[in-house]
Design brief:
- With 295 residues, the chain is α/β, with parallel strands linked by helices.
- 28% of the residues lie in helices and 25% in strands.
- The chain contains nine helices and eleven strands.
- Strands 7-6-5-8-9-11-10 form a seven-stranded mixed beta sheet. Strands 1-2-3-4 form a four-stranded antiparallel beta sheet.
- Helix 1 runs antiparallel to helix 2 and helix 8 crosses helix 9.
- Bound molecules: S-adenosylmethionine (SAM) and zinc ion (ZN).
């Protein structure tokens, strides 16, 4: 199922397993052509420059693993073995503080007072949320593997992911992959970059990238990676608060998906994405959701 992000060869991986441990306690995963990747706390880091990533983010990785109760001698040995000589960089994940604390939008009936008046239209029939639109576009029958890309804290996916689905939970941030899996209560966390998705060609049935493609360095490359990983007849649902990708043309994201070989079958626009910073401050984005099919 997984593929090497460097050479595309098969990457044997058993979800839930600790990873292969060598005599020094280093846990790693090796592709069939011999490329090696670190596995930290059971999570594979499938990045083209895994060594640079571990080197730059080693402090954040240790903190994240401690927070998730996944820190051991073996994880420390793995970080030491892989970390390239790099200046430390904090692991940026673009979440609001409230999202990072796992505080989503309060559920209906749980908030009293003035906030209720603000949240009510976001939940009711007057305004449709991004989560409602995504839920509507998910195929009734899912015939294979599902991948959530840029899952963040998992607060969005918790609202639309069918209960029976245990997805691949991909994020460039280890904290994101772990936290989203915890929020969802299921799934397999993987650290990867959407531009170099580590899945075999034609292997996924559904990919959802909610509010992430506007953040990546090369969105065209990301669209191509999504298209490559999907099976024929598979669905990609991509949402963004900036479908113009920094420019003026709001059809840019749809065009990139089309150029990648994905036919856009539905465009739901003007959807509301509330991002709570605190109980008293909520940012509101207006989002486009594109549903595509690989023919
Ligand atoms: C704005 S958050 C969206 C979170 C969630 N999908 C939602 O809508 O609530 C973007 C997420 O994408 C992740 N991300 C950013 N660049 C990425 C990349 N190149 N590949 C994979 N994930 C990425 C970030 O770590 C972050 O968790
Ligand atoms: Zn390889």
């Amino acid at each position: 199922m997984l593929a090497c992000p460097r050479c595309g060869a098969d990457l044997p991986f058993t979800p839930g397993g600790p990873g292969q441990e060598d005599e020094e306690g280093v846990t790693e995963l090796t592709c069939e052509e011999g490329c090696v990747y670190p596995v930290l706390g059971g999570v594979p880091l499938l990045l083209v420059d895994a060594e640079g990533y571990v080197g730059r983010h080693r402090e954040s990785l240790v903190t994240t693993l401690a927070e998730a109760d996944r820190l051991s001698r073996s994880t420390l040995a793995t970080i030491r073995a892989f970390a390239a000589e790099e200046d430390l960089v904090p692991l940026a994940d673009d979440w609001t503080a409230a999202e990072a604390d796992g505080e989503g939008l309060p559920r209906r009936g749980t908030t009293a007072g003035p906030l209720e008046a603000i949240y009510a239209p976001l939940r009711g029939p007057q305004g449709s949320t991004v989560a409602q639109a995504i839920k509507l576009r998910i195929p009734k029958k899912i015939k294979g593997d599902v991948c959530i890309i840029g899952a963040g804290a998992g607060l969005g996916a918790a609202r639309w992911l069918p209960r029976t689905v245990a997805p691949w939970v991909v994020d460039l941030s280890l904290r994101g992959a772990l936290l989203a899996t915890k929020t969802l209560g299921r799934g397999t966390p993987v650290v990867a970059d959407v531009e170099d998705l580590p899945f075999l060609e034609d292997s996924l049935d559904l990919v959802v990238a909610e509010n992430v493609l506007d953040l990546v360095g090369d969105p065209a490359r990301a669209c191509a990676a999504i298209a490559r990983s999907l099976r024929r007849g598979g669905t990609a649902i991509v949402s963004s608060p900036d479908p113009a990708l920094g420019g003026d043309d709001e059809t840019t994201l749809a065009q990139l998906l089309g150029e990648a070989g994905l036919a856009v079958t539905a465009c739901d626009d003007d959807l509301l994405w509330p991002r709570p910073h605190s109980r008293r401050r909520v940012e509101l984005y207006v989002v486009q959701v594109l549903t595509c099919r690989k023919d």
